[in-house]
Specification:
There is one protein chain. By secondary structure, the chain is an alpha+beta fold. Strands 1-2-4-11-8-7-6-9 form an 8-stranded mixed beta sheet, with helices on one face. This is Peptidoglycan DD-metalloendopeptidase family protein.
């Protein structure tokens, strides 16, 4: 499949360039995270948006297959040491709550769900697309709860159409406002939810099913 020959509408309505976007690092190598109380969303929020403000950027981006240090904030990620889920499978776009999110390519609503609970997805939309003869699914997490009222399963959506908005905390799963954008070839029987984080042991299998979202986002910051 040649992704370069395909047209995708910018999911945030504009291209994410070095002029308006910075890469945010949430790996263990980021020493700045050690002074942040990640269990306190207001503290975490101040850190994220302090980074954006200090650089004069509207968006922070990153995270695909990143080994992250931020999942210690919630028990839902904690399992046996070898299976601790800390490999991020999507791309996060950190920006102010209420920011508009657009449909990148024609498709239909596969499923919606409010995945409630601390550090969960919160309101979530999954779209189904046909791409070069193959099904591809796109997931949008940490949304505004109000957005789910206007969608139904099977509803057709068009590239460039307003889909939803970045949600505020705590309704977005209690995270600093951002969009979790993820791609999947196979939903594996799930609806309204799909793992956004896996363990190191599962990394290879999930990477095969979850291609790099920047193939659609096309942000030069991640090149």
């Amino acid at each position: 499949m040649n992704w370069k020959d395909m047209d995708f509408f910018p999911i945030m309505g504009i291209e994410l360039t070095t002029k308006n976007t910075t890469k945010l690092d949430f790996s263990p190598s980021n020493e700045g995270l050690k002074s942040v109380d990640l269990s306190n969303t207001e503290s975490f929020d101040s850190y994220v948006f302090g980074q954006l403000e200090s650089q004069g950027k509207a968006f922070g981006i990153g995270g695909y297959l990143e080994h992250r240090a931020i999942y210690q904030r919630a028990e839902m990620f904690a399992t046996a040491a070898e299976d601790f889920r800390n490999i991020h499978l999507g791309v996060d776009i950190w920006t102010k709550a209420g920011a508009e999110v657009f449909v990148p390519l024609d498709g239909k609503v596969h499923s919606i769900r409010d995945n409630e609970g601390f550090a969960n997805y919160g309101p979530t939309i999954i779209l189904e697309h046909e791409l070069d003869g193959e099904k591809l699914y796109s997931l949008y997490g940490h949304l505004s709860r109000e957005d789910l009222k206007f969608l139904r399963k099977g509803q057709h959506v068009i590239s460039g159409e307003l889909l939803c908005h970045v949600g505020p905390f705590p309704e977005n799963g209690d995270w600093p406002p951002h969009l979790h954008f993820q791609l999947m070839w196979d939903m594996q029987g799930l609806e309204g939810d799909y793992p956004g984080v896996c363990s190191s042991r599962e990394r290879k299998a999930y990477a095969l099913n979850c291609p790099n979202p920047n193939l659609i986002i096309r942000s030069e910051v991640l090149d």
